[in-house]
Design a protein that fits this description.
The chain contains 4 helices and no strands. By secondary structure, it is mainly α. The longest helix has 29 residues. It is elongated, with a radius of gyration of 25 Å. It starts with a helix and ends in a 21-residue tail after the last helix. The relative contact order is 0.16.
Length: about 130
């Protein structure tokens, strides 16, 4: 393949990776509402983590295209380069997939109720 195709694939996968990661974080942050005092639903957490992991996989494609243009002298297979790039990406940015899980783990504080002042209704005077 020509390096122009690698640059195009790198650009498209990079943009899609950023969009997927930010969408995953945004979905999780959108459910955070301190006024409602509710935890984030498990379905939202799973969708957020899946989008972030998809974004990291797409970023690994970007890294693979970078490694293909840099390492032209060596004859590595495409699968090998992708696995190396995937390892680099998850080593550097894998913690981002834990952000929605952390949002779910931190339960919101309960609403502080005003203590009822006990005022006796019938005060007997003697």
């Amino acid at each position: 393949m020509d390096s122009t195709y690698y640059n195009l694939i790198q650009l498209i996968s990079g943009v899609l990776a950023v969009a997927a990661v930010f969408a995953g974080i945004f979905i999780s942050c959108k459910k955070l509402n301190p006024e409602k005092y509710e935890t984030i639903p498990p379905k939202t957490t799973v969708i957020s983590v899946a989008l972030i992991i998809l974004g990291l996989l797409l970023y690994a494609v970007t890294k693979t295209c970078t490694n293909l243009t840099v390492v032209t002298e060596e004859h590595y297979e495409l699968g090998t380069l992708y696995m190396i790039s995937l390892g680099e990406v998850f080593k550097s940015y894998g913690f981002v997939a834990c952000i929605p899980i952390l949002f779910r783990m931190f339960k919101p504080k309960t609403r502080k109720e005003k203590p009822d002042e006990d005022i006796p209704e019938d005060i007997e005077e003697t």
